[in-house]
Amino acid sequence: MDRTYEKALEIIEGRKRVRRPNAASSSRAPLLPILLEGRATSGLRGTPSLVGMVEWLQQVGHSADDINALNIIHVAGTKGKGSTSAFAESFLRAYGRRTGYPAKTGLYTSPHLIYPEERIQLDGMTIDRDRFARYFFEIFDRLPQLHSPYDSSLPFVQRGPRNLQLYALLAFHIFIRENVNAVVLETHSGGEYDSTNVVERPLVTAITTLGMDHVAMLGPGMKEIAWHKAGIFKSGAAALSAVQADDVDCTVESVLRERARAKCEVVRFVAEDERLPAEARQLEPRVQRRNASLALAATEAWLEARGKDKAISADDIHAGVEQWSWPGRFQVACDPDIRDCTWYLDAAHNDMSVAIAAQWFAAETAAGTEMPTPLLKSNEEGVRILIFSHINELRDSVALLGSLATALRDCKAEITHVIFTKYATVDTGGEMADGRSSPEAEMLHAAWRKSQPGSQIWDEASIGAAVARARDIVKCSTSRTGQILVTGSQHLVGPVLEILQA
Length: 502
Prior knowledge:
single chain; 502 residues; alpha/beta; 8-stranded mixed beta sheet; EC 6.3.2.17; Folylpolyglutamate_synth; tetrahydrofolate synthase
């Protein structure tokens, strides 16, 4: 068999589930006795991703002790879990560089921004494609289920891991084979039934800011979402959380306290840490300070769990922040083709995230330009452009856009042009990539016009066409000055960055 990186990706991509089963799925009932052994449920929907992970790890040759020996910091949450995970890895790496331990760090995040191998990092570097392929085919050789196309009608052990489960298996395998001694592990979307929650004894567990997201899987309300996310808490592992806001229907922090108490732990809520550098672009906007504070607390809890006498130093903290990078999150990029065109990219994909993205964009453009605010509705003084796309059967893209439009209006960041697009990177000349109908496009138009009626609206069939349209708008303006916000999904931001970096 062809054992290239490209073939590995072909097999992994072929393991995607066509669509998520609903709560009434006939395949759900037989799984419950297996799933519920020693576990409670809260709004279980479909087949939990945790099912099968132990068996597949054993087939690959890894025991629970092998996983526990990775000395894991496990991170769940709604907003900022990727940034928090990356900060924690960076702090650990900075500490290890000074003291000699940890000697090698690992980071697993999801989803990727541009290339799939970005999900797995060793010592702050994305794993190279040769090792990615080599380690994948080690798994492939030990899991005969991967030798046939994914068939959801088969029992779960026979059908083998799905796409995300396979990525998690690959990450564990790589970290073990590479002798990593400190791993920061980000959950996919949930917690209790997430495939990453196969870890029995993490050293530290951390919950980032919670909000309404993945409601179809974890909901219907904040009580259920908090319950699921806190499923990563384990006996013997430090339990940490960002300070949480109360929901109308429940006290989120009380749910987390109760879940930690059930594991004989006391959850500690982490406020902003004053030791973080006062002036650091990596800590803007303010939410990044919260993420970094939680990551720093997790790092110190990890050092305590490992019995390290040396505390993390001010130099370690500064180095950890300075070397930290998380592309696609609050990222500012210059346009290589247009001198006075600046791109603002944030992969916000839920109501909480897009509101923060709007505030960030408004603050950045107000501070970094002499363009009038609010901007005139013409090309005479420059242009503010939004490129937006969000395609997800579990979220309402129209409602999400409405939240973004309202947040931008309230921040006085008025948009002159808005460009709606799809996830296709190039225009194939056929039907839109997601099959969105014209009435659905009109719903997006209507949602936008409620808050920002003066914008000119464009529809483009591909991300490449959307970028080209934005550039043309800037070039045709009198000032040739543009500020372009790209948000709505990581599947949009990644390809836009790839175009800008080409």
